[in-house]
Amino acid sequence: MTEPELPDTGFHRLRITRVVAETPDACSLELAVPDDLVEKFHHRPGQFLTLRIPSERTGSVGRCYSLCSAPHEAGPLKVAVKRVRDGYGSNWLCDNAAEGMVLEVLPPAGVFTPKSLDTDLLLLAGGSGITPIMSILKSVLATGTGSITLLYANRDEHSVIFADELAKLAKEHPDRLTVVHWLESVQGLPSVPQLAALTAPWAGRETFICGPGEFMDAASDALSTLGVDRKQVHIERFISLSRNPFEVEDTVDAATDGTPEADSPTRLDVELDGERHSFAWPRNRKLLDFLLEQGLDAPYSCREGACSACACYVTAGEVKMLHNEVLEPVDLDEGIVLACQSVPVTDDVSVSYE
Ligand code: FES
């Protein structure tokens, strides 16, 4: 296959070392990371990779897949892919991915990750939503001291990804890991009251939810009925990128939605990759677009406020996000913003990617 010459937009070429059929409609891909990229591809539990999938129609499309490997595990990075009906990326990977194939990949990103591995967690997964949950779960058990309760919902017993691995972990950590399976074939779709009853004993723990939209909405509503503070709950929404993150696009002026275009730009301090930079930031430019124009290697994936790959901390001053589909109240509380959607509000702003 002849692939188009791609500009340097932050992707790296990783070779698939193994494809594992996890269930009839899901596979996992193991990707080897060359020595010189180990630091760049170091990840936190719960983060995702953006893969470039070849497309005859558009050249390529970008798709985000959560890592199920845990940072402490030696060896390749691993993502799990479940076929989505009419989903181009997942079906292409399940049909074509093979050992030896080289994929173009953006470094790990995302904020669906626990701050501490020493606190007790409640994890709620539906279907392939187990992928980032698995990374968090393995990390806590291997390198932290927290206890885990996992509620894992699936269509039927044949669609339970990582069933054997979970059974093994539960056996190895009987005091720290409780796994509760829910099978739609046996019990029907879990309702809000049923999820509330199941999770009540662990309500109040920091909670991570990932799965199909309906499952996440029901789980989130269940926790609300139990009085759980929304700031305790992290939700990872699957997204399909509508633009190709590997294309270099002309940056577009931000629609500032009423933000006045002041004569004087904002003074901007940026901490990225261990270095500090200072700029005069025009008030009508989105932060990510501006940093890329300045030649900084700022991370990003979707550039549309839907993935959190561009997340950074505002450590001083204030910005305004024009669009946000992914950050939760718990993230905003920590000062996290999406650089691809942020325009300045105050005269001085400091941001950090550390
Ligand atoms: S790059 Fe995806 S949210 Fe900013």
From TrEMBL:
Requisite cofactors: FAD
Transmembrane parts of this sequence: none
Protein name stated in the entry: Ferredoxin--NADP reductase
Iron in keyword set: yes
Domain 2Fe-2S ferredoxin-type: 266-354
Ribonucleoprotein recorded as keyword: no
UniProtKB keywords: 2Fe-2S, FAD, Flavoprotein, Iron, Iron-sulfur, Metal-binding, Oxidoreductase
Source organism of this protein record: Haloechinothrix salitolerans
InterPro entries (UniProt xref): 2Fe-2S_ferredoxin-like_sf, 2Fe-2S_ferredoxin-type, 2Fe2S_fd_BS, Beta-grasp_dom_sf, Cbr1-like_FAD-bd_dom, FAD-bd_FR_type, Flavoprot_Pyr_Nucl_cyt_Rdtase, FNR_nucleotide-bd
Domain of life: Bacteria
Gene3D superfamilies with a match to the protein in the record: 3.10.20.30, Nucleotide-binding domain of ferredoxin-NADP reductase (FNR) module, Translation factors
Domain FAD-binding FR-type residue range list: 9-115
